[in-house]
Amino acid sequence: QKEVEQDPGPLSVPEGAIVSLNCTYSNSAFQYFMWYRQYSRKGPELLMYTYSSGNKEDGRFTAQVDKSSKYISLFIRDSQPSDSATYLCAMSARSGGGADGLTFGKGTHLIIQP
Amino acid sequence: DTGVSQNPRHKITKRGQNVTFRCDPISEHNRLYWYRQTLGQGPEFLTYFQNEAQLEKSRLLSDRFSAERPKGSFSTLEIQRTEQGDSAMYLCASSSTKRGLAEQDTQYFGPGTRLTVL
């Protein structure tokens, strides 16, 4: 079993829908949680950074962390075709990754249909 | 300074050849990471520098791989005697531990170098 599990999709939704993306993890030492967006053949771009359990909102994006269930989510409201990309969850035990780097999920390929 | 830059963006080489990639981090960032990403997978951690010191190496980093960060600025990743299994996107990321900096400790990624070994 991998440390971080993420459904690779593809996930296809109509424009304007609310999108829910999720990851589960097994390492209880993880405390820092991130979501990155990656367009085809580009580097990952940071969307959200959260510490421990709770919610964080930034514009159309909301990140949720439930450490008791080892489950994190990213919600995208009013989805746009430009949101079509691969969404990667990442996590670490130390702030910023420290010497261990970040542990990533496989990424979910999201398609927003116009 | 607009972000992390990597060169070259693409590299095609023949099996057995040596290749070297360069990463220029965001100027105030003292931490630098290398990752490898294969198709359909998330990035996998390879190695980590704090300033010029290489403090951690993943078991993924075989003896054919070597990384340097002279003077704590840019970094190079060299692969000797390339194999077809080395074909991947090599990503560099940087972050800062300096307090007060926006998004302290957050890793920012470059565009990557795509390596194809024939």
Proportion of beta-strand residues of chain B? over 45%
Spans of at least 5 consecutive residues with low confidence of chain A: none
Number of helices of chain B: 0
Shape of chain B: globular
Instruction: Please state the average pLDDT score of chain A.
Output: 93
Tally of strands of chain B: 11
Order of helices and strands of chain B: EEEEEEEEEEE
Number of helices of chain A: 0
Class derived from helix and strand content of chain A: mainly beta
- Ranges of chain B where pLDDT stays below 50 over 5 or more residues in a row are none
Biggest β-sheet description of chain A: 6 strands, mixed
Fraction of residues of chain B in helices?
under 10%
Overall description:
The complex is a heterodimer of chains A (114) and B (118). Chain A has strands spanning 4-5, 11-14, 19-25, 32-38, 45-51, 54-58, 61-66, 71-76, 85-92, 103-104, 108-113. In chain A, 0% of the residues lie in helices and 53% in strands. With 114 residues, chain A is mainly β. Chain A contains no helices and 11 strands. Chain B is mainly β. Chain B contains no helices and 11 strands. In chain B, strand 5 and strand 6 form a beta hairpin. Chain A binds chain B through residues 4, 6, 8, 32, 34, 36, 41-46, 49, 88, 90, 95-107, and chain B through 4, 6, 31, 33, 35, 40-46, 48, 50, 55-56, 58, 89, 91, 95, 97, 103-112, 114.
How are the secondary structure elements laid out?
The complex is a heterodimer of chains A (114) and B (118).
Chain A (H helix, E strand, L loop, with lengths): L3 E2 L5 E4 L4 E7 L6 E7 L6 E7 L2 E5 L2 E6 L4 E6 L8 E8 L10 E2 L3 E6 L1
Parallel strand pairs in A: 2-11
Antiparallel strand pairs in A: 1-3, 3-8, 4-5, 4-9, 6-7, 7-8, 9-10, 9-11
Chain B lengths: L4 E3 L2 E4 L5 E6 L6 E7 L6 E7 L2 E5 L7 E4 L6 E5 L8 E8 L12 E2 L3 E5 L1
Parallel strand pairs in B: 2-11
Antiparallel strand pairs in B: 1-3, 3-8, 4-5, 4-9, 5-6, 7-8, 9-10, 9-11
